[in-house]
Amino acid sequence: MNPFCYRRAESVEAAAAFLGEADEASLLAGGQTLLPTMKQGLAAPDMLVDLAGISALKKIRIEPDAIIVGAMCTHAQVAGAEAVRRHVPGLAALAGEIGDAQVRNRGTLGGSIANNDPAADYPAACAGLGATVLTDRREIGADAFFLGLFETALEEGEIITGVRFPLQRRSAYLKFRNPASRFAIVGVFVAGVPGSVRVAITGAGRDGVFRWSAAEEALNERFHPEALERLALPLDDMLDDIHASGEYRAHLAKVLAGDAVAEISGVA
Q1: Poorest-pLDDT segment among 6-10, 14-18, 29-33, 49-53
Q2: Could you confirm whether the keyword Transmembrane helix appears in this record (predicted)?
Q3: Separation CA 149–CA 236 (nearest Å)
Q4: I need a surface site. Which of 5, 115, 203, 230 has the fewest CB within 10 A?
Q5: Using CB atoms within 10 A of its CB, is residue 82 exposed (0-12), middle (13-18) or buried (19+)?
Q6: Which fold has domain 5-50?
Q7: Rounded CA gap, 115 and 249, in Å?
Q8: Predicted confidence (pLDDT) at residue 29 exceeds the cutoff of 90
Q9: Domain 55-166: CATH class, spelled out
Q10: 241 contacts: CB under 8 Å, gap ≥ 6
Q11: What is the model's pTM?
């Protein structure tokens, strides 16, 4: 690991100022991705700006039609928050399935979406719920935020402060996880009611998280697992690697989507 300067910020403004002091500064949230890549020599920032001291980024609050989750909220905090469990059950379920207990108590919402790993879970919740990413500069809709593998719309020095999720009781997330890493080989987030359905898939796409528009159209007409029977995801868009073939991922995504719809609608 290369030598670096460490700064602990007490506010978002202080963090932004620290970022401007170095040529290659990185924000440190939970460190679940950044620190391993530094150890492997894949990342070599000359400064780490630790966000752990910013209490304002660790809060969850309810608005009339949304819930705002601070960027430094841990997965365990999101999974266990009564407000999240009551108003957006799919999000709580998703957070509770991330990694193991150690990862859930260190990893953060903001760190996860900023990294945008193609097998990460939170991007599916953001896309599936039509969430809005909040930064120290602007607001970015989820459909415009995730651009590709490990790529987002964040500009240099921009800091995620939270995510605004619409209140959606009718939501569910199901995934088939890698038994070693617990990342999603395929994860499917379904949210909505007939006439307003969103389906987001993570772990399966070549370019990372994506919405399954054909499934959304079918479920808008009939919110039932049978609505998906005649659909098929295009194999050319599926990730094919040592963990699973593109064909298997496409099939699994369809099965999980149907199961999520059944869970929401109470179909046996």
Answers
A1: 29-33
A2: no
A3: 16
A4: 230
A5: exposed
A6: 3.30.43
A7: 22
A8: yes
A9: alpha beta
A10: none
A11: 0.94
